[in-house]
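To: structure desk
From: M.T.
Subject: fold request, one chain
Message: Could you run this one when you get a chance? Sequence is below, nothing fancy, just the single chain.
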Amino acid sequence: MRKIFIGLLATMMVALVGCVTINVYFPEAAAQKAADQFIGTVLDRAAPAPAPASSTPSPVKPAARPSAMLLDLLIPAAYAADVPNIRIENATTDAIRKRMQARFNSTLGSLFASGAVGFTHDGMVAVRDASKVPLSQRAQVNATVAEENRDRAALYREVANANGHPEWQSKIQATFAKGWIERAPAGWYYQDASGAWKRK
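Reply: Done. C-alpha coordinates follow.
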Protein backbone atom coordinates (compact mmCIF):
# COMPACT_ATOMS: atom_id res chain seq x y z
CA MET A 1 0.00 0.00 0.00
CA ARG A 2 2.81 2.38 0.88
CA LYS A 3 4.59 1.73 -2.44
CA ILE A 4 1.37 2.47 -4.32
CA PHE A 5 0.94 5.75 -2.40
CA ILE A 6 4.54 6.81 -3.07
CA GLY A 7 4.15 5.89 -6.75
CA LEU A 8 0.89 7.85 -6.99
CA LEU A 9 2.47 10.86 -5.24
CA ALA A 10 5.46 10.79 -7.62
CA THR A 11 3.14 10.61 -10.63
CA MET A 12 1.11 13.56 -9.35
CA MET A 13 4.27 15.62 -8.81
CA VAL A 14 5.49 14.91 -12.36
CA ALA A 15 2.06 15.84 -13.72
CA LEU A 16 2.07 19.04 -11.67
CA VAL A 17 5.49 20.05 -13.01
CA GLY A 18 4.28 19.32 -16.54
CA CYS A 19 1.30 21.63 -16.03
CA VAL A 20 3.29 24.60 -14.78
CA THR A 21 3.64 27.25 -17.48
CA ILE A 22 6.27 29.89 -17.02
CA ASN A 23 5.54 33.21 -18.73
CA VAL A 24 8.13 35.94 -18.92
CA TYR A 25 6.21 39.18 -18.84
CA PHE A 26 7.53 42.39 -20.34
CA PRO A 27 8.96 44.40 -17.42
CA GLU A 28 7.38 47.73 -18.31
CA ALA A 29 8.61 49.70 -15.28
CA ALA A 30 12.20 48.55 -15.74
CA ALA A 31 12.03 49.28 -19.46
CA GLN A 32 10.67 52.79 -18.83
CA LYS A 33 13.44 53.54 -16.34
CA ALA A 34 16.13 52.34 -18.74
CA ALA A 35 14.57 54.25 -21.65
CA ASP A 36 14.38 57.44 -19.57
CA GLN A 37 18.09 57.21 -18.76
CA PHE A 38 19.00 56.73 -22.43
CA ILE A 39 16.68 59.52 -23.59
CA GLY A 40 18.06 61.85 -20.92
CA THR A 41 21.61 61.41 -22.21
CA VAL A 42 20.46 62.38 -25.71
CA LEU A 43 18.06 65.23 -24.94
CA ASP A 44 20.04 66.73 -22.06
CA ARG A 45 23.18 66.70 -24.23
CA ALA A 46 25.28 65.17 -21.48
CA ALA A 47 25.44 61.90 -19.64
CA PRO A 48 24.63 62.09 -15.93
CA ALA A 49 27.65 62.20 -13.63
CA PRO A 50 28.32 58.91 -11.86
CA ALA A 51 27.53 58.79 -8.17
CA PRO A 52 30.64 59.13 -5.99
CA ALA A 53 31.89 55.88 -4.54
CA SER A 54 31.75 55.59 -0.78
CA SER A 55 35.10 54.94 0.87
CA THR A 56 33.53 52.84 3.62
CA PRO A 57 31.20 50.17 2.38
CA SER A 58 28.06 49.73 4.40
CA PRO A 59 27.54 46.30 5.89
CA VAL A 60 25.15 44.16 3.91
CA LYS A 61 22.97 41.78 5.78
CA PRO A 62 22.09 38.60 3.95
CA ALA A 63 18.45 38.49 2.99
CA ALA A 64 16.37 36.00 4.86
CA ARG A 65 15.38 33.17 2.58
CA PRO A 66 11.70 32.34 2.69
CA SER A 67 10.77 28.77 3.39
CA ALA A 68 10.46 26.70 0.24
CA MET A 69 7.00 25.86 -0.93
CA LEU A 70 6.16 22.68 -2.84
CA LEU A 71 6.11 24.59 -6.13
CA ASP A 72 9.54 26.12 -5.39
CA LEU A 73 10.93 22.62 -5.08
CA LEU A 74 9.34 21.48 -8.33
CA ILE A 75 10.25 24.44 -10.54
CA PRO A 76 13.93 24.57 -11.49
CA ALA A 77 15.93 27.59 -10.35
CA ALA A 78 16.62 28.47 -13.99
CA TYR A 79 13.03 29.60 -14.35
CA ALA A 80 13.37 31.99 -11.42
CA ALA A 81 16.48 33.47 -13.05
CA ASP A 82 14.48 34.12 -16.22
CA VAL A 83 12.93 37.25 -14.68
CA PRO A 84 14.26 39.95 -17.02
CA ASN A 85 16.24 43.03 -16.14
CA ILE A 86 16.23 45.47 -19.05
CA ARG A 87 19.73 46.22 -20.28
CA ILE A 88 20.31 49.06 -22.70
CA GLU A 89 24.04 49.64 -22.59
CA ASN A 90 26.30 47.65 -24.90
CA ALA A 91 28.74 48.56 -27.67
CA THR A 92 26.00 48.84 -30.30
CA THR A 93 23.64 51.00 -28.25
CA ASP A 94 26.54 53.20 -27.10
CA ALA A 95 27.48 53.86 -30.74
CA ILE A 96 23.83 54.67 -31.54
CA ARG A 97 23.60 57.01 -28.53
CA LYS A 98 26.75 58.88 -29.60
CA ARG A 99 25.41 59.36 -33.13
CA MET A 100 22.06 60.56 -31.78
CA GLN A 101 23.76 63.00 -29.38
CA ALA A 102 25.96 64.40 -32.18
CA ARG A 103 22.95 64.72 -34.50
CA PHE A 104 20.92 66.42 -31.80
CA ASN A 105 23.71 68.87 -30.99
CA SER A 106 24.45 69.73 -34.62
CA THR A 107 21.02 69.99 -36.26
CA LEU A 108 18.15 68.01 -34.77
CA GLY A 109 17.80 70.06 -31.57
CA SER A 110 17.28 73.29 -33.48
CA LEU A 111 14.84 71.56 -35.85
CA PHE A 112 12.75 70.45 -32.88
CA ALA A 113 12.93 73.91 -31.31
CA SER A 114 11.75 75.56 -34.55
CA GLY A 115 8.84 73.14 -34.93
CA ALA A 116 10.13 71.81 -38.25
CA VAL A 117 10.28 68.26 -36.88
CA GLY A 118 8.53 66.41 -34.09
CA PHE A 119 8.28 63.06 -32.32
CA THR A 120 5.87 60.59 -33.87
CA HIS A 121 3.57 58.45 -31.73
CA ASP A 122 5.64 55.36 -32.62
CA GLY A 123 9.00 56.57 -31.31
CA MET A 124 10.34 58.02 -34.54
CA VAL A 125 10.95 61.55 -35.85
CA ALA A 126 9.11 63.20 -38.76
CA VAL A 127 9.23 66.46 -40.64
CA ARG A 128 6.20 68.34 -39.33
CA ASP A 129 6.45 71.66 -41.14
CA ALA A 130 8.95 71.87 -44.00
CA SER A 131 8.20 75.59 -44.43
CA LYS A 132 10.24 76.21 -41.25
CA VAL A 133 13.36 75.18 -43.18
CA PRO A 134 14.87 77.10 -46.12
CA LEU A 135 14.28 75.33 -49.44
CA SER A 136 18.01 74.82 -49.95
CA GLN A 137 18.25 72.86 -46.65
CA ARG A 138 15.20 70.61 -46.96
CA ALA A 139 16.99 67.69 -48.61
CA GLN A 140 19.56 67.69 -45.79
CA VAL A 141 16.80 67.84 -43.16
CA ASN A 142 15.07 64.85 -44.77
CA ALA A 143 18.40 62.97 -44.78
CA THR A 144 18.97 63.83 -41.10
CA VAL A 145 15.49 62.61 -40.15
CA ALA A 146 16.06 59.38 -42.12
CA GLU A 147 19.40 58.78 -40.34
CA GLU A 148 17.77 59.41 -36.98
CA ASN A 149 14.97 56.97 -37.73
CA ARG A 150 17.42 54.29 -38.86
CA ASP A 151 19.25 54.65 -35.56
CA ARG A 152 16.00 54.58 -33.59
CA ALA A 153 14.83 51.39 -35.32
CA ALA A 154 18.24 49.81 -34.71
CA LEU A 155 18.13 50.88 -31.05
CA TYR A 156 14.74 49.32 -30.37
CA ARG A 157 15.76 46.10 -32.14
CA GLU A 158 19.11 45.93 -30.33
CA VAL A 159 17.60 46.47 -26.87
CA ALA A 160 15.09 43.66 -27.45
CA ASN A 161 17.78 41.31 -28.81
CA ALA A 162 20.30 42.18 -26.09
CA ASN A 163 17.74 41.17 -23.49
CA GLY A 164 17.10 37.84 -25.20
CA HIS A 165 13.55 38.73 -26.23
CA PRO A 166 13.37 39.90 -29.87
CA GLU A 167 9.58 39.65 -29.59
CA TRP A 168 9.68 42.65 -27.23
CA GLN A 169 10.81 45.05 -29.98
CA SER A 170 7.39 46.65 -30.44
CA LYS A 171 6.98 47.05 -26.66
CA ILE A 172 10.46 48.55 -26.33
CA GLN A 173 9.62 50.95 -29.14
CA ALA A 174 6.31 51.93 -27.50
CA THR A 175 8.10 52.50 -24.20
CA PHE A 176 10.67 54.76 -25.86
CA ALA A 177 7.95 56.58 -27.81
CA LYS A 178 6.26 57.54 -24.57
CA GLY A 179 9.58 58.54 -23.02
CA TRP A 180 10.67 60.80 -25.91
CA ILE A 181 7.42 62.72 -25.69
CA GLU A 182 7.45 62.98 -21.89
CA ARG A 183 11.05 64.25 -21.83
CA ALA A 184 10.58 66.73 -24.70
CA PRO A 185 10.99 70.37 -23.69
CA ALA A 186 8.02 72.74 -23.76
CA GLY A 187 7.31 74.04 -27.26
CA TRP A 188 8.35 70.87 -29.09
CA TYR A 189 5.84 69.00 -31.23
CA TYR A 190 4.69 65.41 -30.96
CA GLN A 191 1.97 63.22 -32.42
CA ASP A 192 -0.83 61.86 -30.31
CA ALA A 193 -2.13 58.31 -30.78
CA SER A 194 -4.33 59.40 -33.71
CA GLY A 195 -1.33 60.98 -35.50
CA ALA A 196 -2.40 64.61 -34.89
CA TRP A 197 0.42 67.04 -34.09
CA LYS A 198 0.36 68.73 -30.68
CA ARG A 199 2.70 71.17 -29.01
CA LYS A 200 3.99 70.64 -25.49
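Reply (cont.): Confidence is low (pLDDT under 50) at residues 46-83. Let me know if you need anything else for the meeting.
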